Amino acid sequence: MAEVDADLDHIIPSSILPPFWAKLVVGLVSLVCFARSYDGDFVFDDSEAIVNNKDLQAETPLGDLWHHDFWGSRLSSNTSHKSYRPLTVLTFRINYYLSGGFHPVGFHMVNILLHGGISILMVDVFSVLFGGLQYTSKGRRVHLAPRASLLAALLFAVHPVHTECVAGVVGRADLLCALFFLLSFLGYCKAFRESNKEGIHSSTFWVLLSILLGAVAMLCKEQGITVLGLNAVFDILVIGKFSVLEVVQKVLHKDKSLENTGTLRNGGLLFRMALLTSGGASVLYVRWRIMGTGPPAFTEVDNPASFAESVLVRAINYNYYYSLNAWLLLCPWWLCFDWSMGCIPLIKSVGDWRVIALAALWFCLIGLICQALCSEDSHKRRILTLGLGFLVIPFLPASNLFFRVGFVVAERVLYLPSVGYCVLLTFGFGALSKHTKKKKLIAAVVLVILFINILRCVIRSGEWRSEEQLFRSALSVCPLNAKVHYNIGKNLADKGNQTAAIRYYREAVRLNPKYVHAMNNLGNILKERNELQEAEELLSLAVQIQPDFAAAWMNLGIVQNSLKRFEAAEQSYRTAIKHRRKYPDCYYNLGRLYADLNRHVDALNAWRNATVLKPAHSLAWNNMIILLDNTGNLAQAEAVGREALELIPNDHSLMFSLANVLGKSQKYKESEALFLKAIKANPNAASYHGNLAVLYHRWGHLDLAKKHYEISLQLDPTASGTKENYGLLRRKLEQVQKKDV
């Protein structure tokens, strides 16, 4: 029996040690932790990655997934995030197809089940980490370490830092990456069992399969490729039993036997390292070629430390971020959906008290590394090495060491590193149990930790069920985060509470005076409230700070149009289109400007551009029909209306506009059919009934005209045109009655 496993004898009861029961317990506990999120909404990044991502819909060819980033933009675009995760997007697309649309329950259920499956798989992974890879002559592993693997798997399954990955649908990238990462690691472990039985060929097969699974993990999320580095460390330090302590001692004593160190002369090890290196390099090269351009461009608010001029300031803050990540693993009570935009102020001098956190982190890490590399106990050396390997290696892509990342702290990137944390924590409990007589107290502490973590998972899963709860939960954790206030304001604005939204948008701008998106949204609300001067000032400042902000240029144009500053408005619209060439809404607003200026040809051209870029742009089609109708071009208006209805056959406003044109062209029967169809789709539109009444009035169907005039006036008693027409009809009916008499 493995040493750590024996030390945990008083913590884990033997009655649940059989593998099936252990996995069943872990699976059920993992489901309990996050089941509350199953009926949650699409929140935060889900909107962009799923709801607004055209790659999920059948109209987008499957082949496009291999040329687009995670958010549906072309990888070759300068605005692309460069996050290449086609397999994750493919699972979203399958979810969309099976659910029959954007129904979040199916998406959430897949995430919950994935975490459950990964937690069950962790029992086997931890069994290898704690028990090693010693086999009997029959090919069975000697030490399964059932107690240690069960405890570590439970600690992993209930860790609250996983909530973002499980309860947020976009976290599926991390879940899928972790799944194939672990399968790759287990496949690599399989190589050593098979090489003992069947020789080098079988071993090569498993190593190649491990590389393939690592590539699959990377296609789910970028950090998946780090499994190849972990496999190499595992091979050299654990399988090859390379002892740093032994090498150091030989170097110090100038021992000539150093040249004959078995690990360095092991042909099988060197062959496997060559396979891992060439495989990893090939995968990274292909990934680089597909990406097409350099790394994504992030702004200072995304990762302020990476923009610091001083190397010392950058180094201190990066290390402080590492300590915060470590703290989230140790004490996952303060969790936040976003840690950027002032949430963590920069450390600008070594006199900042937060430097203590750096010292504490490196004191612990150096102590663990020394024990992992230099301990004479091979069992202890293996566990600490693999624990640190799982903790550090998957975290490297998020460390800012190789390239700038677009966040300060992100709970989702701790999903895989938490495996290493669980190894170290379980090893610590085993060591405590070995060196103390109060074993029941340690068992009680373990149970309390598990219970508190389960409770925190349940609470946090509830917070991820809706954007309002998620955003408000962040206020107590990151009150200085401008993005938190921005998102609360946006959520309130979407619900129609503009007054409260303005308050939060103003606070976001106060916390970050360069927050152009908050300025843009605040300017939009002020525009709707007819506070045009302040709206113009905010939007002008936004485009001054970010000159290529197309949406702000368009909104500035709308405000300037309302202020009758037509030349400035036109210039703003043109600038927006310059920065975003495919901008149908901007063409639509430009068309409205031209219509106000009686530049009818220019207006029609602008609206036509809008419909070319977005064939379902109902407003642009409608305005074309109405303008052609008002200018007497009935034949052209009819042609445009028919073209529009072919593209958007269920749009009742288009039916209404075309029906008006057909009525004026005396095509009464067809006009009547369209009016009735529009009314069926929108029965409470007073104008629909009023214009149908006018049609009947012209057509001579006076009783039907009277009926629809009355319905229209019931729906809108203030409609003066309908009142006047109804009065004319009544007088005509009275004349008819007198004539009949």
Output the radius of gyration.
Answer: 33 Å
Mind describing the biggest β-sheet?
none
Helix and strand content put the structural class at mainly alpha
Which geometry do the CA atoms define? elongated
Distance between the terminal alpha carbons, to the nearest Å? 113 Å
Helix content: 55-70%
Number of strands: 0
Mean pLDDT: 87
List keywords for this structure.
741 residues, mainly alpha
Describe the protein.
- The protein is mainly alpha-helical.
- Helices cover 67% and strands 0% of the residues.
- It has helices spanning 3-7, 19-34, 46-51, 86-99, 104-131, 146-157, 163-167, 172-198, 200-220, 227-239, 244-252, 267-291, 311-330, 355-374, 378-392, 417-435, 439-463, 467-473, 482-494, 498-511, 516-528, 532-545, 550-562, 566-579, 584-596, 600-613, 618-630, 634-647, 652-664, 668-681, 686-699, 702-715, 720-740.
- α22 packs antiparallel against α23 and α24 runs antiparallel to α25.
- The longest helix has 28 residues, at 104-131.
- The chain is elongated, with a radius of gyration of 33 Å.
- The chain starts with a helix and ends with a helix.
- The mean pLDDT is 87.
